[in-house]
Design a protein that fits this description.
Elements lengths: L3 H12 L5 H8 L3 H13 L3 E8 L7 E9 L4 H13 L3 E8 L4 E7 L2 H12 L6 E14 L14 E4 L9 H12 L5 H8 L3 H14 L2 E8 L1 H4 L2 E9 L4 H13 L3 E8 L4 E7 L2 H14 L4 E4 L2 E9 L5
Antiparallel strand pairs: 1-7, 2-4, 2-5, 3-4, 3-12, 5-6, 5-9, 8-10, 8-11, 8-12, 9-10
Helix pairs in contact: 2-3, 6-7, 7-8
């Protein structure tokens, strides 16, 4: 469905989805007009679902909770109502339907644990009898890398979001820019300037300042997995050795592995979430076997969860 040029184009946009068509043209070796056409076609065909900006909520004073839910006695209609309630919530950043040990995984911003409990309870109260099990963890930080498997390249670009919560002050222009970039990271500067009621140079300065301060961490894309024949999994991992040195070994392995897209360090019932993209079940099994063999003295157990549908991804849902 996609050729080598498309794969390289996607990889460039995955590293930085705000890369201009002119720059992509130079790197891929096709005209600027053809770059624009190919991007439009990839979006229209559902190969690229969304361009978005990763915004580090902890820099704005938020903690980042992740909730795993297992349902019971839910009709399709009731499950849709519960899922939509999470999607509509102004504090949820990620909502995905799953297959495996859990039915739904949700990420929620909250300024403290009390706010998280209020937000969560308000959503699930009408569906309390339908929740068989839940697990709540706190995201410490996230390492992410490029999708090297798409173009056969080696090496990853990594960055971290998460960390120590702090309250940086942003103004109205920052707020409007973040809101738009979270929806579409490829929004042109002139469009951002119109939304923010400011000139282009002012918008550029605000974006630079937010990148420098760590509020804006990266500009990425999401893929239409079914269109590409890709399976998306979360692999929660329990460690028997959770020391910094042990975690570093696993992080180095993940950074060099082309199919591991995110590594999430967790505080809670387990220690790490790996988010991976593979072509088939056999590739998943091989990855898990290699991981557990290499780190048999560090990893206690793994529990793969398949993501079957991404309902929401918005790092600035306010």
């Amino acid at each position: 469905m996609i050729d080598k040029k498309d794969r390289e184009l996607i990889r460039i946009l995955d590293i930085n989805s705000r890369t201009t068509n002119s720059e992509i043209s130079k790197r891929v070796g096709i005209s600027k007009q053809l770059v624009a056409y190919r991007i439009e076609k990839l979006c229209d065909n559902g190969v690229i679902e969304k361009f978005y900006t990763i915004i580090n909520g902890v820099k704005l004073g938020y903690l980042y909770f992740r909730v795993y839910l297992k349902f019971q006695g839910l009709t399709s209609e009731t499950e849709l109502q519960l899922t939509d309630a999470f999607v509509r919530c102004k504090f949820t950043t990620w909502v995905v339907k799953c297959r495996g040990s859990w039915n739904l995984v949700v990420s929620i911003y909250a300024t403290d644990t009390d706010e998280f409990v209020r937000t969560y309870q308000e959503i699930v109260e009408p569906f309390q009898k339908n929740i068989l099990a839940k697990k709540v963890v706190l995201v410490q930080n996230v390492l992410f890398s490029t999708r090297d498997y798409l173009s056969g390249s080696e090496g990853s670009v990594d960055s971290i979001y998460g960390g120590i919560s702090e309250k940086q002050i942003i103004d109205k222009i920052d707020h409007l820019i973040l809101k738009e970039l979270s929806r579409n990271s490829r929004s042109k500067l002139i469009h951002l300037a119109k939304i923010a009621d400011a000139n282009v140079e002012t918008v550029k300065a605000h974006i630079r300042n937010m990148e420098k301060s760590g509020i804006i961490r990266a500009h990425k894309l999401t893929l239409g997995y079914s269109k590409l024949g890709i399976l998306f999994y979360i692999i929660p991992i329990n460690l028997s050795n959770a020391s910094e040195a042990a975690r570093k070994k696993i992080q180095n392995y993940c950074k060099s592995h082309p199919n591991i897209v995110y590594l999430v360090n967790i505080i809670g019932d387990h220690d790490i979430d790996l988010e991976i993209e593979v072509e088939n079940q056999s590739q998943l099994d091989s990855l898990i076997q290699d991981l557990t063999n290499k780190f048999h003295d560090i990893i206690r157990d793994v529990d793969p969860i398949q993501i079957v549908q991404q309902k929401k991804l918005d790092f600035y849902p306010f």
